[in-house]
Write a structure and sequence with these properties.
five-stranded antiparallel sheet, three-stranded mixed sheet, Jelly Rolls
Length: about 280
């Protein structure tokens, strides 16, 4: 990640769940990309096994991601003038100051925007298909259900693993998280708890919460383990990591990985899709 004068002069303050933390700091460190391994699939697989994730810069075409971003913003705008601020260009995606919880439309599943040409060109495009074909060693498949999201002002996602939501059928799933645009730490990005898939301290966590099917268990609520990321690292270990993301970057992780996410005042848009 490029270092600018701001980050060189003093630590950046980042919202992480219910907390504000300095970056970089012992609590939140920088993700390192795995682009240097793209020419060696065995090393790439080993990296995924060791880390539990792969951070790939520029997997998607930047231009195609920005086209998808504009398509999603137009979709949101068409649903009501109260959602996006008219004081900024549409492509900035700045939310109306009054756009709180319940204002941003629900876009997950299979619908006109998740399966629009601009969005599918990114998440099911030639580049990710070729990447996963190499990584998996077989023709990759995806589900029709797409986790396309925009987050309301100061909204966030608590700490969770994808296993609790999608553990039925094959467990050999790769989640690809794609930010739909440039996303800085201050805007809010996705964080991962490195080591949460294999460290001994997470054994009980993975055998209990991490192995739960919340729908089958008829659990009511978000499915999050906690909204305080420190609870995870203080009890079980691991290291929270994140980075600034550019349009085209992706973060790929497994079902048992610990993930929270924060957003600030933009219609922070991202899409999760599973390959298997």
């Amino acid at each position: 990640m490029a270092t600018d004068a701001r980050s060189a002069s003093k630590p950046r303050i980042v919202k992480l769940g219910t907390r504000e933390v300095e970056f970089p700091s012992p609590y939140l460190q920088e993700l390192k990309d795995s682009n240097h391994l793209l020419g060696d699939v065995e090393l790439l697989r080993q990296e995924f096994h060791n880390q539990g994730y792969l951070f790939i810069r520029g997997l998607h075409s930047r231009e195609e991601v920005l086209d998808a971003r504009l398509a999603v913003l137009r979709y949101i705008k068409d649903l009501g003038e109260d959602k996006l601020s008219t004081e900024y260009p549409l492509e900035d995606g700045v939310l109306n100051p009054r756009c709180g919880k319940g204002c941003v439309p629900f876009m997950e599943g299979k619908n006109n925007i998740t399966h629009s040409d601009p969005v599918r060109k990114v998440i099911e495009g030639r580049r990710p298909f070729q990447f996963f074909k190499t990584l998996i060693g077989a023709e990759p498949k995806t589900f029709d259900f797409k986790w396309l999201r925009a987050i309301h002002r100061e909204g966030y996602t608590g700490v969770h693993t994808d296993y609790v939501y999608m553990s039925r059928g094959t467990h050999q799933l790769y989640t690809m998280w794609t930010p739909i645009g440039d996303v800085t730490l201050e805007m809010g990005t996705l964080c991962v708890c490195e080591g949460s898939h294999r460290l001994p301290g997470f054994k009980h966590f993975q055998e209990t919460y991490g192995s739960c099917d919340i729908e089958k268990a008829n659990l009511v609520g978000t499915g999050w383990f906690t909204n305080d990321p420190y609870e995870i690292t203080s009890k079980f270990g691991g290291q929270w990591k994140t980075a600034d993301f550019k349009a085209g970057d992706v973060l790929i992780f497994g079902l048992r990985y610990g993930v929270p996410r924060d957003w600030a005042f933009n219609a922070g848009m991202s899409c999760k899709i599973n390959y298997y």
